[in-house]
Design brief:
Length: about 160
């Protein structure tokens, strides 16, 4: 089932060691056409680039099914972020049928098992880094697959 379509702020995969496209979810569980419209609403008001700050010493293990319509049972680990326009993005998103990500966050690794998540956290902790500014680009993503490796950016190409 996946997460249908969504609007993401993506970053280069070299930023973190991920097997999927690195991103901060703005929205998910959208129809494709609505996701593209939301992309344009955000881009017209705030542009397509933003910085998101993460504390690399604060690893988070995210519970499964964190979104209202989420029943994928995917767990992940990653980092929460801070962004100056996130509350405004929530307001823009309210005119669409979607699940908004109230806390900017990025997942580094996904799994259906908690044991695998904990193992990956231990193997991938970055040392001696306090905060990181991540340069992100606005995109629309196809997140219909159950496997994050197959999530793809579909707009703009």
């Amino acid at each position: 089932m996946g997460y249908k379509y969504g609007v993401w702020y993506t970053y280069p995969n070299s930023t973190f060691n991920t097997s999927h496209q690195g991103h901060f979810t703005v929205t998910c569980f959208m129809e494709k056409e609505d996701a593209i419209k939301l992309y344009h609403d955000i881009a017209n008001k705030y542009g397509t680039l933003t910085d998101i700050y993460v504390d690399l010493n604060d690893t988070i293990i995210f519970e499964p099914n964190i979104y209202e319509d989420d029943d994928n049972n995917l767990q992940s680990w990653g980092y929460n972020g801070e962004n100056k326009i996130w509350k405004q993005l929530e307001e823009i998103s309210k005119k669409y049928k979607c699940n908004f990500s109230h806390q900017p966050h990025t997942s580094i690794f996904y799994s259906k098992t908690e044991e695998e998540i904990k193992k990956q956290v231990q193997q991938n902790q970055k040392e001696n880094q306090k905060e990181n500014q991540i340069k992100c680009k606005l995109n629309v993503a196809d997140i219909c697959s159950d496997d994050p490796k197959y999530w793809t950016i579909i707009y703009p190409l």
